[in-house]
Design goal:
two-stranded antiparallel ribbon; Fructose Permease; kinase; 6 helices; cytoplasm; 26% strand; globular; alpha/beta; 156 residues; 35% helix; PTS_IIB_sorbose-sp; seven-stranded mixed β-sheet
Length: 156
């Protein structure tokens, strides 16, 4: 069961390990990222950041879709981590269980603007945000579980 789908370009780090995992009772982190899935060094570094007693699965986007739609995933309490709005949109279109996306951290890039202290988006991202919202996906910003939910659409 997917407890949270989170966009965070750092993927696994302290906020995830020390706040989200215990708050949601997570027993499995699924990193859905094509680049990381094919890079042994990145896999190793993310493995060092994961909390003890929490399983870490690093899969390509295609492998993640297959796994998340399988019966194997249903018994786990999953925190799904992606690094971009584009990847969140792809997964939400292919995994019916994803009905909400948490925006945790997206660093600025060329042509982007800050919509919160940790979220920078460009025009392509805004198009995807509107598409996700039109598809009925809840889009909220919170760095940690104790933060008040702010809805992304109100900030663009």
């Amino acid at each position: 069961m997917i407890k949270l789908t989170r966009i965070d370009d750092r993927l696994v780090h302290g906020q995830v390990a020390f706040t989200w995992v215990p708050s949601l009772g997570i027993d499995c982190l699924v990193v859905a990222n094509d680049k990381v899935a094919s890079d042994e060094f990145l896999k190793l570094t993310l493995g060092l950041a994961k909390p003890a007693r929490t399983q870490l699965m690093i899969k390509s986007l295609k492998e993640s879709i297959t796994f998340l739609n399988s019966e194997k995933s249903k018994a786990l309490k999953i925190l799904l981590l992606v690094s971009s709005i584009k990847d969140a949109a792809l997964l939400s279109a292919q995994v019916p269980e994803i009905r909400s996306v948490n925006f945790g951290g997206i660093r600025g890039k060329e042509g982007s603007k800050l919509i919160s202290k940790a979220i920078a988006v460009n025009d392509d991202d805004i198009t995807l945000i509107r598409q996700l919202a039109d598809d009925g996906i809840e889009l909220e910003i919170r760095q940690v579980p104790s933060d008040t939910k702010r809805f992304v659409q109100s900030l663009i």
